[in-house]
UniProtKB/TrEMBL annotation:
Keywords: 4Fe-4S, Cytoplasm, Disulfide bond, Iron, Iron-sulfur, Metal-binding, Methyltransferase, rRNA processing, S-adenosyl-L-methionine, Transferase, tRNA processing. It is an enzyme of class 2 (transferase). Pfam families: Radical_SAM, RlmN_N. Belongs to the radical SAM superfamily. RlmN family. Its EC number is 2.1.1.192. It is found in: Cytoplasm. Its main location: cytoplasm. GO terms for cellular component: cytoplasm. This is Probable dual-specificity RNA methyltransferase RlmN. GO terms for molecular function: 4 iron, 4 sulfur cluster binding; metal ion binding; rRNA (adenine(2503)-C2-)-methyltransferase activity; rRNA binding; tRNA (adenine(37)-C2)-methyltransferase activity; tRNA binding. Reaction proceeds by a ping-pong mechanism involving intermediate methylation of a conserved cysteine residue.
Length: 355
């Protein structure tokens, strides 16, 4: 089933890769080098108006203005955490809202982007699914989030050093737009984000895990697993009905064999639900067949509309010890931006409630 997307009179400038710009300039009988100039204005100089593209002729600027528009990302709110995390709530052209987060690390600035307005996957512990799926984002609407983040960082003399596609929505259900976004992000004549500094997270859309494995990229893959077996995963993640646990594990094995790259398994710990010693032992047995994998343990975020409680500190460390005793590499995610509702979907949920 194809999801809805925003219908526009004119495509967004950020919808186009450099290859698209080359085709457009050729079709409009412009010299081929103009494509590179346009791309440079958008991603190196980061202008927001065609009139600022001063090395293009007036006629070409008018043609661009008639043919394309810039993405509307109106800032509804911006919150800054004491740990340096910045969270944006943006309004789109159709009045829907999305979130984008900048996280400050010792190694640089990471930006978490959204790929859909809402989500239909239905994970029972996540705020992103509240209200269901409204529509997919266009490629340019995803790109614009990074451009906005970079413009904020420009004022500090800093840059976006890594990207995580872990915001609102299921990236693998908006696969083509996501791949167009990635193509634009990694291009050496644009923002030039290193492929190994980008991570895509999926809840387990099995056909597109195979598809992604065949893309031949160096982009990292994370899988939201959250349970060690079919029955429990179905309770927590309804997507498991469509793509059962066994099929997901087989697709992960294919990915590792095809790419030679490890997978990070995201595991949200929920008090007395999936965080006990027996769950850790069972998970270890499943993952032993994938020696390159890594488990990222995530103490669950409190969501008002959900009734899960946070795992105790002792149980978190015990879960990690059991995995490591079974030679499964495991780390505990450092919490960021908790004082500004930086967990995925929380800010948008509050905005929807207010509206």
């Amino acid at each position: 089933m194809r999801n809805k997307t925003l219908q526009v009179d004119k495509p967004f400038v950020y919808d186009y890769s450099l290859e698209d710009w080359k085709q457009w300039t050729e079709e409009n009988r412009e010299p081929a080098f103009r494509a590179g100039q346009i791309f440079d204005w958008l991603y190196v100089k980061r202008v927001t108006d065609f009139e600022e593209m001063t090395n293009l002729s007036k006629a070409l600027r008018e043609k661009l203005k008639a043919s394309f528009s810039f993405v509307t990302l109106s800032e509804i709110a911006k919150y800054e955490s004491k740990d340096g995390t910045v969270k944006f709530l943006f309004e789109l052209a159709d009045k829907n809202a999305i979130e984008t987060v900048i996280m400050k690390h010792s190694y640089g600035n990471s930006v978490c982007v959204t790929t859909q307005v809402g989500c239909r996957v239905g994970c029972t512990f996540c705020a992103s699914t509240l209200g269901g799926l409204k529509r997919d984002l266009r490629p340019g609407e995803i790109v614009a989030q990074i451009v906005k983040a970079q413009q904020l960082l420009d004022a500090k003399g800093e840059r976006v050093s890594s990207i995580v596609i872990m915001g609102i929505g299921e990236p693998f259900e908006n696969y083509d737009a996501m791949m167009k976004f990635l193509n634009i992000m990694i291009h050496p004549k644009g923002l030039n984000i290193g492929q190994r500094h980008i991570t895509v997270s999926t809840s387990g859309i099995v056909p597109n895990i195979y598809r992604f494995a065949d893309e031949d990229t160096q982009i990292n893959l994370a899988i939201s697993i959250h349970a060690p077996n079919n029955a429990l995963r179905t309770k927590l993640m309804p997507v498991n009905v469509r793509f059962p646990f066994e099929d997901l594990i087989e697709s992960c094995k294919y990915y590792m064999a095809k790419t030679g790259r490890r997978i990070t398994f995201e595991y949200a710990l929920m008090g007395n639900v999936n965080d006990q010693a027996e769950h850790a032992e069972e998970l270890a047995q499943v993952l032993k067949e994938m020696p390159m994998c890594h488990v990222n343990l995530i103490p669950v975020n409190y969501v008002q509309e959900r009734n899960y409680v946070r795992t105790t500190r002792d149980d978190i460390f015990n879960f990690q010890r059991i995995l490591e005793r079974n030679k499964i590499n495991a780390t505990i995610r450092r919490e960021q931006g908790s004082d500004i509702a930086a967990a995925c979907g929380q800010l948008r949920a509050k905005h929807m409630e207010t509206k």
